Amino acid sequence: MFENSTPIENVALGQKFIIYAIIVNFLTMGLQFAVGEIAGLIGIVAIGLSLIGMFRLASGLGYSMASKILLVIFMLVPLINVITLLILSSRATKALRSAGYKVGLLGASMPANT
Fold first, then answer.
1. Distance between CA 32 and CA 56 in Å, rounded?
2. What gap in Å lies between CA 12 and CA 7, rounded to an integer?
């Protein structure tokens, strides 16, 4: 699907998108309490980041199409989507560390030799 990237690069980039999606999800929840339901429109950004990150990460980890479809369904359910993103990020961290990447709070740092 992503011809110019290796699977582990897809995992690294997908994890970054997922981390940003988690941050936007929490900001959206907080803003909904502060300014009302109109802040929920920001959640559209979170859904977009979630889907892009999930597809990249799932492709990099070799998930089947059925698994990807199930993950898309989970992305549409409030609270379940955040839990799913956290689980995916955790799996990505394990894969990236085993591949020699350094993983921090905002995702993986690319190795110097790539």
1. 29
2. 9
CB atoms within 10 A of CB 43: 19
User: What residues are paired with 63 via a beta bridge?
Assistant: none
pLDDT 10s digits, 53-74: 999 999 999 999 999 999 999 9
> The whole model's pTM is what?
0.84
Q: Tell me how far apart the alpha carbons of residues 53 and 20 are, in angstroms, rounded to a whole number.
A: 9
59, 5 Cβ separation under 8 angstroms: no
Please give the span between the terminal C-alpha atoms of the chain, in angstroms, as a whole number: 21
The total of structural domains in the chain comes to: 1
Name the DSSP letter for residue 36: -
In whole angstroms, what is the distance from residue 37 CA to residue 69 CA? 28
Within a domain: 110: no
Q: Which domain holds residue 84?
A: 7-98
